[in-house]
């Protein structure tokens, strides 16, 4: 059996990377979604072991000390980590593995596994991203604006990735992602300069 391929999917909060990853895995039997560990509390509807492995801060520290994480990072005051053992087992089984992680984690994974293929998901505009964060109904107005500021910092790293996808229409973005994962093609050419998203007041 051939070794599977590792794919890294990153995006600012609200850009839709988790929805894209879930849809990809649901429609692709040979693709597995790596479940990360986190110290944050579960959101409504999230299940331990399915969406994340929810652990305490001391347990997270123990896992770091034991070398159990392929990467780990702190985001919005919470910690996230990817199980090295779980990812390597899936790859040995011939599965393609998708990591839903931030740019810091992507950089760490690429440093250790340069053969991994990285994809960054962008919103079509800053205003679209803000509207998506508001529609989620999970955060206060203050937190939404904080996430917008963080999004600008995150999006500034888009150039570090092998592919950039704009989630302007979900099915089209999913087709772009599937083309990268199954090797059938490349994402649609970008219709705008992603650097424009880094400017406050941009479209």
Number of helices: 7
Instruction: Give the N-terminus to C-terminus distance in angstroms.
Output: 48 Å
Q: If you average the pLDDT, what whole number results?
A: 91
Tell me, briefly, the overall form. Answer: globular
What does this structure look like?
The chain has 203 residues and is α/β, with parallel strands linked by helices. Helix content is 38%, strand content 20%. The chain is built from 7 helices and 9 strands, in the order βαβββαββαβαβααβα. The chain has helices spanning 17-27, 57-65, 84-92, 103-112, 126-136, 141-155, 170-182; strands at residues 6-10, 31-33, 37-38, 53-54, 69-75, 78-83, 96-100, 117-122, 163-166. The model has no long low-confidence stretch (mean pLDDT 91).
What's this, in brief?
With 203 residues, the chain is of the alpha/beta class. The protein is built from 7 helices and 9 strands.
Topology:
Layout: E1 6-10, H1 17-27, E2 31-33, E3 37-38, E4 53-54, H2 57-65, E5 69-75, E6 78-83, H3 84-92, E7 96-100, H4 103-112, E8 117-122, H5 126-136, H6 141-155, E9 163-166, H7 170-182
Helix pairs in contact: 1-7, 5-6
């Amino acid at each position: 059996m051939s070794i599977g391929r590792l794919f890294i999917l990153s995006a600012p909060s609200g850009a839709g990377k988790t929805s894209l990853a879930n849809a990809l895995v649901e429609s692709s039997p040979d693709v597995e979604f790596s479940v990360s560990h986190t110290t944050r509390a579960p959101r409504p509807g999230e299940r331990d072991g399915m969406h994340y492995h929810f652990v305490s801060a001391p347990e997270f520290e123990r896992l770091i000390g034991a070398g159990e994480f392929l990467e780990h990072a702190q985001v919005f005051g919470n910690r996230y980590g990817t199980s090295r053992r779980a990812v390597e087992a899936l790859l040995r089984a011939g599965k393609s593995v998708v990591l839903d992680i931030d740019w810091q984690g992507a950089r760490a994974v690429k440093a250790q596994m340069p053969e991994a293929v990285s994809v960054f998901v962008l919103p079509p505009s800053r205003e679209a991203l803000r509207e998506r964060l508001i529609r989620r109904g999970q955060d206060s107005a203050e937190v939404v604006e904080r996430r917008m500021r963080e999004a600008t910092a995150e999006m500034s790293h888009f150039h570090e990735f092998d592919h950039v996808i704009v989630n302007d229409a979900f099915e089209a973005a999913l087709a772009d992602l599937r083309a990268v994962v199954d090797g059938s093609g490349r994402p649609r050419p970008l219709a705008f300069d992603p650097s424009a998203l880094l400017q406050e007041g941009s479209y």
